[in-house]
Amino acid sequence: MTGDKLTAVLPLILVGMLVAFTFWLDRLAQPVALGTAGASRHDPDYMVDGFSAIRMNESGAASYTLSAAKMVHYPDDDTTLLTAPRFVSLGSAKAPVTITASQAVVSTNGEHVYFQDDVRVTRAAFGDSSELMMRTAFLHVIPDDSLARTDRTVTITDAAATVTAVGLELNSETRVIKLLSNVRGTYDPNKSPRAAAKR
Questions:
Q1: pTM value?
Q2: How many CB atoms lie within 10 A of CB 197?
Q3: pLDDT per residue over 60-98, tens digit each?
Q4: Torsions phi, psi of 75, nearest 5?
Q5: Comparing C-alpha atoms, which of 82, 121, 123 is closest to residue 103?
Q6: What sign results for the dihedral spanned by CA atoms 164, 169, 170, 175?
Q7: For an engineered disulfide with 192, which of 66, 73, 160, 163 has Cβ 3.0 to 4.6 Å away?
């Protein structure tokens, strides 16, 4: 190639290289396409440390409180994961019910709460009834209905009794507990609050 031809072609080569380089830079700047796999990933969109919330009833009084050491929200299914949750039902001022666990999953709008691992339910003492403690591995709570349910093994203790069962339904407002199957227990009337009051 003669010097004249090289001089004529060189600008075209440089322009071509510049166009190619610009295209390459544009491709690098584009976000990576998520595709169908990325769209279905269970990734959080926000986290909160020291989470706390209060639900009010129609009269403006506190119905229940929910707090946790950490809250993580997932947009793909609109669920919330709570670490070390603490739920307090205030439906009955006489005997509030407190639920704690290692973690809990809250559904959309807080309609359902699923407590998991080392679940403890404590009903405060009232009248002639002592404090009551229930332990299980899983508990499904429906806050607006004041209901708690499980199909797992539960152990219930108070001052005078120890009861085990498989499956339970608890209404925190009426304080009624239903044991569903395989119920076994022991009771010592001498340890009841009534017996202690007579001494």
A1: 0.71
A2: 8
A3: 778 888 899 999 999 988 899 999 999 888 766 667 889
A4: -75, -20
A5: 82
A6: negative
A7: 160
